[in-house]
Amino acid sequence: MNIQESGEMYLETIFILSKEGSQVRSVDIAKRMGFSKPSVSRAIGVLKNAGYLTIGEDGSVILTDDGLKTASRVYERHTILTAMLMSIGVSRETAEDDACRIEHYVSQETFDAMKAHYEKYLK
Fold it and tell me: What does pTM read for this prediction?
């Protein structure tokens, strides 16, 4: 199932928060993304119904295998695109912002070619 950009952004945020080593709760997501708690609750419900995450007994948000796969893909795109943009002189802040927009729309073929170029020449 394909999800929209906003869903990918939520999954990526959950992925990043989980990498930081703590339980991920809706309030953490709201704080990180700057969204209201009701907006986050609605998005969590949509992603849960789509099979991208589950809610633990303690209320923690847990990525399913599909959620982890999607979040990892988006996160990889974000980090590589940010690094590539910075390598050509774009400031970190602008590179982060632009990578966030590009990561959701670039085709897999184009991203794979960009990643190969990055790994061969820029890394």
Answer: 0.91
